[in-house]
Structures are given as C-alpha cells and as structure tokens.
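step 4 of 6: structure.
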Amino acid sequence: FFCSQASTDGFLACLTASVPEQLLFTRSSPSFASVLASSVRNRRFLTQATVRPLCVVTATNASHVQAAVVCGRQHGVRLRVRSGGHDYEGLSYRSARPETFFVVDLAGLRSVRVSLGIPREGAPATAWVESGATLGELYHAIGKASDRLAFPAGLCPTVGVGGHLSGGGFGMLLRKHGLAVDHVVDATMVDAEGRVLDRDAMGQDVFWAIRGGGGGGSFGIVLSWRVKLVAVPPTVTAFTIPRSVEQGAVDILTKWQEVAPALPDDLFVRVLVQRQVAKFQALYLGTCDALLPVMRRRFPELGVNRTHCKEMTWLQSVPYVYLGSGATVEDILNRTDPVDTTSSKATSDYVRHAIARDVWEEIFATWLARPDAGLMILDPYGGHMARVPEAATPFPHRAGVLYNVQYINFWGGGGGDGAAQTAWVRDVYAFMEPHVSKNPREAYVNYRDLDLGENVVVGNVTSYEAGKVWGEKYYSKGNFRRLAMAKRQIDPDDYFRNEQSIPPLDADD
Ligand code: FDA
C-alpha cells in the first residue's frame, strides 16, 4: 500500500477541514509521542523500530470518526482504531509491516448510560456504552446504578470496551452468563463509506460479525454498544487459595480440569499456574454459607473453609480480584495499569480433554521451573457457555471446551530484550500441542498472536486462503467463512485491513 507525499499532505488537509486542530496530533506535534503512548499497554511496541502512525486523531464525536474514514479512503491512507490499547500485538496503534497509516483513538468517546429497565413489564436493564470506555468505567456505572446488576466481561478494568467486544470478552461471570458479546443487542458503527449504521442499518450478517468477529477492526469502527445487563445477588463470595507442588498442586490441578467446568453455573474457579504454585481464584454468586457445602462436596481436595471466604458486592469483587484486597471500587476508574510498564508476549489454547497427571508433573518440573518461565492462566468454561450454539456469534469455543489456557510472559524494568521470555511462550506452546484441541488447534482472538499467521495481500485484497491459517484457529466451525462473507458485504474494497483482519469472500467462491 503506497502513499505519496502529495497524498499525505492532501490527507492531513482533509482531516484539518473536519477535525478540530486540538484533536489532531501529527508527528511534528510536541504531544505526538505522549498521545500515541497514552494507552499503549505493551512496552514491546514502544521502540524506535516500531512503525509509527502518520498522526493520531483523538475523536470526541462520531463526525470526527466519519471524517477520518472519508479522508483516509479519499487519500489512500489506511487506519488503525484504538479503544483501550490492550491489543497483545499492538495492532490498534502500530503496523507490523512498513506502511503509512494513522490512528483513530476513541479514548475520548467513553460515555456509559445505564437504564434500569422496567422488570415488571419485561423491559430489561441495559446500557449504552461507547467503545472508548474501559471495562472499569462500565462496571462502575452499572454497580453504582444498582447492586443487583452486572455485566459479564473481562477481569482487567483498563481493557477497552471497543476491542474487548470485538473479540468476545470473558471474565468471572462466564459460566453463569457467557461472553460479553452474548449480551450485545445493538451497536453503532462507522463503515468504510463513512456512514453511521445501527443494528438494523448494518443488517443481520454484519451485526453477527461485529459481536466477536471484528477483532482487528475488520468491518468498521464501532462507536457504541447497547448491552443487556445481568442480575447478580447482593452478596458474592471470592476466595484465593495457593497450592504448591509440595502441597499437592499436581493432583489438585489434575482433578480441577474435570470439576471446574461441571460445577454449578454460579461458581467460577480459575487457576493461575506460576513457578511451583497453582493459585485457585474463585467467584461465587452467593454467600459463603451457600458456597462451602458445594466446595466440600464437589472439590474437597482444595480444602476451602470459612477463613478463605471474602463476601462483598459484585462491584467490589472487580478490584478485589484484579487489583488485590486493598483496592477500592474507585480504583477501577484509573485508566493506567501497573502492567503498563512491562513488555509481554502471549498466546492461547483450548483444552477439550483433561491433560494427564504426568504431563502436569512435567510442566511443573521443566517448563515452570525455568528461570525465564511465564505464567499459565486456566479459565474454565462449561455452564452457560456450553449451551450457546457455536454459530450464535463468531466465537466458536463453546460446548466441549473444558478450559482456555493463556500462556503469558513478561519482561522489562531491569532491561533485557525479551528473547528468552518470548522463546518460553513459543516453546511451551509447541510442547502443549498433543494435549490441546486439534483440527484446528483453537485460539482466542482477544489473546492475539501473530505467530499463528498473518494476512497476505493479493491484488490489493487480503487473501482468504492465507487468512484461513490464523482465521480458523480463532473462528473454527465455519465461522471464519461466514465472517469473510460479512466482510465482503460491508467492506468489499478491504479498506479496514491489518495483519489479522477478516478477508472479504464472495459467497460464490
Ligand atoms: P485495542 O484498542 O488495542 O483494540 C484491540 C483490537 O480491536 C485492535 O485490533 C483494534 O483495532 C480493534 N478495535 C478497537 N476498538 C475498536 C472499535 N471501536 N471498533 C472496531 N475495532 C476496534 N480478555 C478477556 O476476554 N478477558 C480478560 O479478562 C482479559 N484481560 C486482559 C488483561 C490485560 C492486561 C490485557 C492486556 C488484555 C486482556 N484481555 C482480556 C484481552 C482483551 O480483551 C483484548 O486485548 C482486547 O482486544 C482489548 O481491547 P482494547 O480496546 O483495550 O484494545
């Protein structure tokens, strides 16, 4: 994709005509670097070698986004859209290849409007949330409106709503209520023509596609989402129990694989496996009194007792689980995260058959014992997830999945180029192949990994055949093909394109 100096100048002139000067940051602006870095969540992409955008447009209303798309298309400059900036490969603000592009940053579009509905008339509680809001801002607005309402999405409060909902979105309410995208009932999006479309105007195929299949801004720029809220009890209970290998972690973890996905839907017990410890972290939608008999009956090996229970409201559980016991509900409004100062590399798997005990023994003894070892995060599925058909949304990892595995490693602060940590993630991923889902080996798009494959452009359009390499891992069960057909409908010229965007496919192909 080539962009001459003349078209660059014309592009900037076009933007200046429609976007106020104070919202436009070109490379010569004194604040360019800080605006660009403002929501970069992975320091790996803040180096001299990173391909930087031509400018950043910090949109504060829909017309700025429309103007950005229209000017970009007119002058042949592609764009990247950024909501919370958490993309694991930084695709919302950098290009992995040398190309001229600009960034539309939505952090200024972050209102949340909660409507409590009229339960006795069957009108559900909903919220309109703009893409630039963080999950923390959404949760805070809901929890302040009612302690009986919640939204099922990710754990990290600084994750942006726009990117999160573009890829699915799951957290501690997953087993009871499924994914964030399972609750999206409407959305507004700026398409490649610069039009603002709602659910009816974009049509059912595109509305299906943006709810989890848009990871990477493939279809347009989603401005806002209308989501249905879910009911929670006034008291929920959290617990965290670490078990070392000496304390039986291998046996407990082996058992956990079968138990956790089959527990009552109200109970979510995930595991963080690091060094020689498996840390079991749980949220139960109810009181400690109700939780204890369930744990004693279904998972006595973990040894949960009253001293482990922490009762609180659902809103309070958000900072408690992610930020620690000292954090308050106001802390989830903070848009900067301690993790921001580090670099990371991650990838993911799905496990459909429990991994044998001796394999877990080997994982602890070799992989987790290495000096540069990272962390494995195991999130159990089952419950509501298993009851949603694979074709209901683009996210196909539903019935039959025992749990999701995220492999992640961090470096930074003390220097180092991350080579050893990155190699650990790649090597452990290779080791795990016989033990995880196959044909395809499934992965979660929100844990984006360019090692799974990158697009190839043929004749100025992204190749569907090449895209299948990575695409069918994220979107198995025929969903990738369906996404490609939706892409053809809404963006046949493939304007919204990046290293892992959905390629357009003609239904006859
Ligand atoms: P960002 O702005 O980087 O966007 C991500 C992708 O979506 C980019 O390709 C971008 O172009 C595109 N995009 C963004 N806004 C868009 C819009 N408005 N319209 C169209 N496309 C858009 N996931 C999870 O399910 N559960 C969890 O608990 C967590 N926890 C977590 C913690 C931390 C620290 C990180 C870094 C990540 C997670 N995630 C997660 C993964 C997270 O859901 C994923 O990275 C999201 O894509 C992040 O969304 P942002 O808006 O922050 O990212």
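step 5 of 6: annotate
 - The first strand starts at residue 24 and ends at 26.
 - The chain has a mean pLDDT of 95.
step 6 of 6: archive
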